[in-house]
């Protein structure tokens, strides 16, 4: 049976400021969802709240996988239940190679009770799996010997993201892709990589405006966020329309949220 990620009436605050105000969304394994919305509407906040970033406090509502609540779980426990967030700004860890990082990450997920220094998946088994996945993805195996994020180009950071996705095989992957600063190589890596990896075993939430990413990975559902709420849900045609015409018509259709967006914006300017 396919798994269900169910978000119900989710309210999230950062500090004292309410950001999400009643987000409901259901993603089944095997489905591709696109989440769009103007800057500051709360898309990244939703991604961080889902994976359990400590700065994003859930003040109401629930997140469940197959009926088990996630609200109180730490990010590691959520990852073991099959949630994955591709980080926009992964850290550089001096002296740690891509392959070491992946071996630890995969071991943490597959052996939940392992202690530091124990319970790593055997090197031979790991190498074999990594090599075959890299070949499948058309990646140069030398990449695994590079130091994590040290001097990585945009495209290489995305290769790392896709490789993590391939190794961890999450039930639900959340990709928060900045729409600025991704060069064409990076967009190609994510678009093609995600297309190869997604399938009936993976539910995907893509946060992006990138045409190419959504052309390669056609969403069955497109959601539009405005001032911390999902105001519309449609299919791939809605993503296409928003890409071509922007959010003016969405704001016209949802004057209350548009006014709230405006007053948040003014509050942010006043706050400095
Ligand atoms: N860590 C944070 N600290 C302070 N404010 C934040 C933080 N994260 C998000 N916000 C605020 O929440 C709102 C939504 O931000 P975000 O979720 O990043 O929007 P989006 O990803 O749609 O552009 C913005 O007004 C932003 O300033
Ligand atoms: Mg964002």
Describe what this molecule looks like in 3D:
With 272 residues, the chain is α/β, with parallel strands linked by helices. The chain has a domain at 4-88 and 171-271: Rossmann fold (3-Layer(aba) Sandwich). The protein is globular. A hairpin with a 2-residue loop joins β9 and β10 (229-234). It has helices spanning 43-51, 75-80, 98-110, 123-136, 154-168, 184-197, 211-216, 236-245, 248-253, 255-271, and strands spanning 4-14, 17-28, 32-36, 56-65, 68-69, 83-86, 172-176, 203-207, 221-226, 229-234. A six-stranded mixed β-sheet has the order 6-7-8-3-9-10, sandwiched between helices. Strands 2-1-4-5 form a four-stranded antiparallel β-sheet. Bound molecules: adenosine-5'-diphosphate and magnesium ion (MG). Adenosine-5'-diphosphate (ADP) is lined by residues 14, 19, 37, 39-45, 55, 264, 268. Adenosine-5'-diphosphate binds at residues 14, 19, 37, 39-45, 55, 264, 268.
Secondary structure blueprint with pairings:
Blueprint: E1 4-14, E2 17-28, E3 32-36, H1 43-51, E4 56-65, E5 68-69, H2 75-80, E6 83-86, H3 98-110, H4 123-136, H5 154-168, E7 172-176, H6 184-197, E8 203-207, H7 211-216, E9 221-226, E10 229-234, H8 236-245, H9 248-253, H10 255-271
Parallel strand pairs: 3-8, 3-9, 6-7, 7-8
Antiparallel strand pairs: 1-2, 1-4, 4-5, 9-10
Helix pairs in contact: 3-5, 5-6
């Amino acid at each position: 049976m396919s798994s269900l990620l169910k978000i119900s009436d989710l309210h999230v605050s950062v500090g004292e400021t309410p950001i999400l105000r009643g987000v409901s969304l259901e993603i089944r394994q095997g489905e591709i969802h696109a989440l769009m919305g103007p800057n500051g509407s709360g898309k990244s906040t939703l991604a961080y709240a889902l994976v359990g970033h400590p700065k994003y406090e859930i003040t109401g509502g629930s997140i469940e996988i197959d009926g088990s609540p996630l609200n109180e779980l730490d990010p590691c426990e959520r990852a073991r239940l099959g949630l994955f967030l591709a980080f926009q700004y992964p850290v550089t860890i001096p002296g740690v190679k891509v392959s070491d990082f992946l071996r630890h990450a995969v071991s943490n997920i597959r052996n939940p009770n392992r202690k530091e220094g124990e319970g790593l998946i055997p090197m031979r088994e790991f190498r074999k799996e990594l090599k075959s996945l890299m070949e499948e993805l058309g990646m140069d195996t030398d990449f695994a010997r590079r130091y994590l994020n040290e001097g990585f180009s945009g495209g290489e950071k995305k290769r790392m993201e896709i490789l993590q996705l391939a190794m961890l095989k999450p039930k639900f992957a959340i990709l928060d892709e900045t729409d600025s600063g991704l060069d064409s190589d990076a967009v190609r890596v994510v678009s093609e990589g995600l297309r190869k990896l997604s399938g009936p075993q993976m539910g995907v939430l893509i946060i992006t405006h990138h045409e190419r990413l959504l052309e390669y990975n056609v969403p069955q559902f497109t959601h539009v966020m405005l001032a911390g709420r999902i105001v519309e849900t449609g299919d791939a045609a809605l993503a296409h329309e928003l890409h071509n015409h922007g959010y003016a018509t969405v704001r016209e259709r949802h004057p209350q949220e548009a006014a709230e967006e405006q007053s948040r914006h003014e509050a942010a300017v006043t706050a400095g």
